[in-house]
Design the sequence.
């Protein structure tokens, strides 16, 4: 039976904030690992049919994850996540940006601050991600780019990875 996870996607253009709540049918430690280890992130962190490749990653405060989402034609869409705060297995905060291959942020695209919290539920783990943009226009830009649809696809792939890892 396919899990029926709780999923909420709330975009508030007055505060330029997006909140995503998603429940996973796996224990918190495993869901945490899937968010913090490059070999696991690469298995799910891109909407289908894209894949993800890590260029470099240091999961620690002051560290970063520099990665690319790659399409079937081998076009790389670069991103960079800088870790600003980490409380193991419960929370991390980042600054997230589109970037170039060197990791330099693309300042023509929205840059955001992510606050990601993990908590236990009766069915597994709830992940709440609060994303703050600099302006309502930046938030609208990522919505128009397909953020909700991309996240939905990406999180469904995480469900598949978690199911494989818990067999």
Sequence:
């Amino acid at each position: 039976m396919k899990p029926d996870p709780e999923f909420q996607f709330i975009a508030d253009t007055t505060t330029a904030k997006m909140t995503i709540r998603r429940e996973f049918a796996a224990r918190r430690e495993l869901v945490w690992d899937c968010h913090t280890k490059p070999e696991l992130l690469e298995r799910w962190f891109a909407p289908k049919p894209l894949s993800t490749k890590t260029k470099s990653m240091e999961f620690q405060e002051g560290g970063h994850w520099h990665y690319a989402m790659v399409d079937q034609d081998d076009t790389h869409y670069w991103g960079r996540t800088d870790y600003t705060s980490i409380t193991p297995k419960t929370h991390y905060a980042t600054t997230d940006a589109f970037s170039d291959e060197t990791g330099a942020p693309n300042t023509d695209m929205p840059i955001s601050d992510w606050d990601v919290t993990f908590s236990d539920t009766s069915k597994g783990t709830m992940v709440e991600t609060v994303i703050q943009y600099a302006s309502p226009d930046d938030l609208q830009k990522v919505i128009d780019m397909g953020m909700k649809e991309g996240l939905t696809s990406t999180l469904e792939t995480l469900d598949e990875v978690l199911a494989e890892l818990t067999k």
